[in-house]
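Usage

Read records sequentially. Each one opens with the input sequence:
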Amino acid sequence: METFSRVFTLASSTGLLLTVVATALFPSHVWAAAADSKNTLAQQMSDIAPSHSQVALLAHDMSNDKQLYSQQADTLFIPASTQKVLTAVTALAALGPEFSYVTDLWSDTPIRQGHIEGSVYLRFSGDPTLTHEDLKALFAQLQKLGIKRIEGHLYLVGDKQEQLQAPGWVWDDLGICFAAPVSSYIINQNCVYGQFVPNSAKQTSRVTLSATSYGVNVSSDAIFSPQANHDFCQLDLVRLSQNQYHLRGCYPGSEAIPLAIAISDPQKFAIDTLTATLKGKISLSGKVKIGHELPDKAKLIASHRSAPLTELLKTMLLKSDNLIADSLFKRVGQDYYKTQGNFAYGAAAMRHILTELGIDLTNANIVDGSGLSRYNLLSARQLADVLTLMYQDARFHSLIDSLPEAGVSGTLKYRRGYTQPPLKNRVFAKTGSMQGVANLAGFIRIPEQRDILFVVLENGISPETKKQRKPAFSADFLTRLMATVEQQTH
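and closes with the structure output:
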């Protein structure tokens, strides 16, 4: 993706100075064209505006610092995953581009003749990208040191009494991997995979899980029902304690379907995973247990680092990764307040950091970093202010290059209305979708070094309306916006 042209504007404390400068730079016919474009867009909006949902719109020409269109720009809406734009800026400002998560191993006694006579401590850091393979590689470092046996216990060190979900997360999302628990203990994104498989011998069917689903069990009395009515035949995953689940209901089909299940107890999943990982690798006389702090005399013996923050943010924005977003959100709160991270500290830290960067968050409600919470509230203008900061401040330019590109990458690769001209390759934006919500915030690249910042927030969409729409309202609006701007340019 090419780097956007970036135009920096000088502000003044007096409106008079701004008027004089603007008049000098932009002759009267340019002002008239801008006014005509607003009127044209306003007329078109009355034709395409959704009749049953609420819309906030804002479009700003970054080449001349002129507002092109505004509608309900100061009204608060549920941002969904456009919230991640705020998270990206906050994390980069607070943690720095070189930040990475560190998962490390410590010993409380010296290594002698391939033995550790005491215990070993595996300290988790809330790395949202830590995998089972990373842990195997970490213990392989011990094998390279000649360690074959641990006489004591393996303590898994992390936060205690953690807040695993933010207020406002929808309860029936909690068994799904995009709403996996945000913990200091994270392995394989705290998600396990499997299949719901028909059983030809019986009416009931079964669930099979992947080999790395340690300690997770899913019982089932659900059925496949090919002739069933789709509206009334549904599967329901019941979350039980200790990473146990029960699948019930029916599925209106006859082919096996994939399952992606968020674990409910990260500590137990970590214990079960590490117990299995050590088998056949290193002999452990004691047990795998939960611990909450390192002893003073402990010595570092091996470590694993995640990718740097810039790479984590690129993945977060492209794939709209909720776990990365909320892990960083909690980590920012932890670092800012020097205490155990939670969503409340993360929200307060985000508000302070963005305010210091010049973003007015008056009346906004910030609850999490992913946008999963329906308690989040932002205006189109507040989102536009954060995008403007990304555009104008060199510290955040890399974030624009990490946004999904229409028809090419991330969550805009296959988005309806964005896979063909005129929007393909021209729109770079963060999506925000959930039940009743369809948002988009980012930039349009116009030829001749003209970049248009835009925010489209739409809330209150009925599921039936969303199915029938072709293309999405945002695609229709941006197509008309581009045509108006290009007409004005030429």
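Summary fields computed downstream for this record:
- The first helix runs from residue 15 to 25.
- Residues 1-35 have pLDDT under 50 and may be disordered.
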